[in-house]
């Protein structure tokens, strides 16, 4: 078993070195990310379970995404999310720029509203993990699809028929296992 693992590691490292030497840059040169006619920033919207205003700022090869929007279409509220995304790969499938990315982030939100018989006020704070695929055209437009689930704490209260009752105090929950589509202007 140890010999099989050793042979697999040698084959994988040989393939990695050959792929690195086959590209335009050598292994000793840093990899440069170039967006054909687009700058290092993008602004637009991200739409899934809720709607968000989205801003991206490139930091070398990776980028930061900051979003502000609603937690969902059913409830009223606001949430802010910041994620640092690592660019995993940028395959050259078409003339534009494809990007596969993933990264961690933080989310803070408030939700007020609820069913007709109850009014509630909830706050959440948690960590998110984002994974996605984006495409930047040769003109300044970026389209993306991503998944950004979160895990964290939720606390708040509910008012039922005029009486304020605790809404379970503080508990852990998960949210946003729904894909989102992003449309951004790159500048």
Your description of this structure?
With 187 residues, the protein is mostly beta strands. It has a single domain (38-186), classed as Porin. Helices cover 11% and strands 60% of the residues. Strands 1-2-3-4-5-6-7-10 form an eight-stranded antiparallel β-barrel. A hairpin with a 4-residue loop joins strand 5 and strand 6 (118-136). The chain is elongated.
How would you briefly describe this protein structure?
The protein is mostly beta strands. Helix content is 11%, strand content 60%.
Strand content: over 45%
* Uncertain runs: 1-38
Radius of gyration equals 22 Å
The secondary-structure element order is HEEEEEEEEEE
Q: What would the CATH topology be?
A: Porin
Structure classification: mainly beta
**Count of spatially separate domains:** 1
How are the strands of the biggest sheet laid out side by side?
1-2-3-4-5-6-7-10
Q: Tell me which CATH architecture applies here.
A: Beta Barrel
Q: What composes the largest sheet? A: 8 strands, antiparallel, barrel
The general outline is: elongated
Q: Which CATH first-tier class would you pick? A: Mainly Beta
Q: Work out the number of β strands.
A: 10
Query: What is the helix tally?
Result: 1
Give the oligomeric state of the chains in this entry, treating copies of one chain as homo and distinct chains as hetero: single chain
Features:
single chain, 187 residues, mainly beta, Porin, eight-stranded antiparallel barrel, 10 strands, elongated, disordered N terminus
SSE diagram, text form:
Layout: H1 2-22, E1 41-47, E2 51-59, E3 62-69, E4 76-89, E5 97-113, E6 118-136, E7 141-147, E8 150-160, E9 163-175, E10 180-186
Antiparallel strand pairs: 1-2, 1-10, 2-3, 3-4, 4-5, 5-6, 6-7, 6-8, 7-10, 8-9
